Amino acid sequence: MYRVIEDYLPEDKIMKNIIVLSVCLASTVIGLQADAVEKTLNTQDMIVSQNSQNEVFIARGTEPFWNINVSRRGIFYTDINGKKLNFPYVTPLKAEGRSADLVRVYKLRGRNNTLIITKVKECSDGMSDQKYPYATTLILGNRVLEGCAERK
């Protein structure tokens, strides 16, 4: 049976106030927990950003010859014919469950432009005896270029 509010006994009013206060307290606690989670996520984002400020890579490919420089100033591509493409710096994505040094994925401005830098035992450019610690794949639209990279 439902009772109209005027029919509540004083004990019922006390119980109603306790329920209302409990709901308010629970809402406050949930809100504080959400704020704490958001602050934790923001702190983690700042750590990634601070680490990437020192991030400088040079990637090179042969046949066709090309290179790309990655730094906080930007991501700069040049090919053998002197064609240049400049992209604003973006924080790289990393493979879930892996350290940021194993795989970096830069989603570059434009349609289907991506740079992937992967930590490897060694990468050879096929032209010299130099060995590099990173392999790289550069996707520019429908072109896929492969090469090696090193941290500077």
Order of helices and strands: HEEEEEEEEE
What is the end-to-end distance?
A: 77 Å
Strand content: 35-45%
| Helix content class | 25-40%
The parts where pLDDT drops under 50 for at least 5 residues are: 1-9, 23-50
Number of helices, where a helix is a run of at least 4 consecutive DSSP H or I residues: 1
**Main sheet record:** 9 strands, antiparallel
Average pLDDT rating? 76
Tell me what you see in this structure:
By secondary structure, this protein is of the alpha+beta class. It folds into two domains: 5-52; 57-151. It has one helix at residues 10-52, and strands at residues 57-61, 66-71, 74-79, 84-87, 93-94, 103-108, 113-124, 131-140, 143-151. It has a nine-stranded antiparallel beta sheet with strand order 4-3-2-1-9-8-7-6-5, with no helix packed on it. The N and C termini lie far apart (77 Å).
Main attributes of the structure:
9-stranded antiparallel sheet; 9 strands; 2 domains; disordered N terminus
Secondary structure: elements and pairs:
Layout: H1 10-52, E1 57-61, E2 66-71, E3 74-79, E4 84-87, E5 93-94, E6 103-108, E7 113-124, E8 131-140, E9 143-151
Antiparallel strand pairs: 1-2, 1-9, 2-3, 3-4, 5-6, 6-7, 7-8, 8-9
